[in-house]
Amino acid sequence: MNIKIVKAIKKAKEYIRQMANVGHDESHMKSVINYAMKIAAVEKNVDSDVLELAIWWHDVGRLHRDDGHPQKSAEMAREYLQANDFDADFIEKICDAIENHGSKAGADLPTTLEGKILRDADKLDFLTPARWKVTIQNKKIATIKAAIKKIPIIRNQILFFDKSKEIFDEVAVKLKNYILTVNDDFFAEYKKQLLREL
Q1: Residue 50 near residue 40, CB atoms below 8 Å
Q2: Topology (CATH level 3) of domain 3-197
Q3: Under a CB-based contact definition with an 8 Å cutoff, are residues 39 and 117 in contact?
Q4: Fewest beta carbons within 10 Å, which of 17, 64, 151, 174?
């Protein structure tokens, strides 16, 4: 990995560490990278530099706002990458991946392979038991309610790749097993609903 990319990742990490956003911290980025690399391993012609930079930058806009963060993240990435003399086509691939990683209704889909992998990997992290442990401990009701609605559609309506669906099935079992162990009065009313969706 060249020094410019290493510095760009370091800058993204600086932004991430400034955020007080449980669930979108450095551990989230590492989890997304882990899932992305598993997907990329079975796909052809993946630009790993584009993919890794897009992952590290995809949520930095949450430093300023959660709603609309993909556009803000892409804006911040574009500004940094242009100021540091990255190739224009390289920047556009990264920004396309970042801008289109969301899954809200009306959101554009990524046009690049790397963008599709980022989107899938980001959604897969939504099911990671470690992330749920933090979500439950911090009593993030909005996240739990969103999960109850989103989990049933992630596998068949959001994920692009067969490998992503395979990973989803594996992680969903781990999440279900984790949720069965949770004995938290706060979480009790959501536990049954979530288990039904898994």
Answers
A1: no
A2: Hypothetical protein af1432 (1.10.3210)
A3: yes
A4: 17
- pLDDT of the residue at 176: 95
pLDDT reading at 170 higher than 80: yes
Quote the mean pLDDT of the chain: 92
Q: Rounded to 5 degrees, what angle do the CA atoms 101, 99, 24 make? A: 55
In eight-state DSSP terms, residue 100 is T
Q: Which two tokens stand for residue 182?
A: 């949770």
Number of Cβ atoms within 10 Å of the Cβ of 156: 9
Query: What is the pTM (predicted TM-score) of this model?
Result: 0.92
Q: Helix 113-125 and helix 26-40: axis angle, to 10°?
A: 130
Q: With beta carbons less than 8 A apart as the criterion, state whether 101 and 60 touch.
A: no
Token pair recorded at residue 194 = 């979530």
Tens digit of pLDDT for each residue in 133-168?
989 998 989 889 988 898 989 999 999 999 999 999
- Cβ atoms of 118 and 164 within 8 Å: the answer is no
Burial class (CB in 10 A: 0-12, 13-18, 19+), 188: exposed
Q: Give pLDDT, residue 101.
A: 86
All residues at 6 or more sequence positions from 6 whose CB lies less than 8 Å from its CB, including other chains = none
Type of residue numbered 35: Y
pLDDT of residue 104: 61
Of 11, 189, 33, nearest in space to 84 by CA: 11
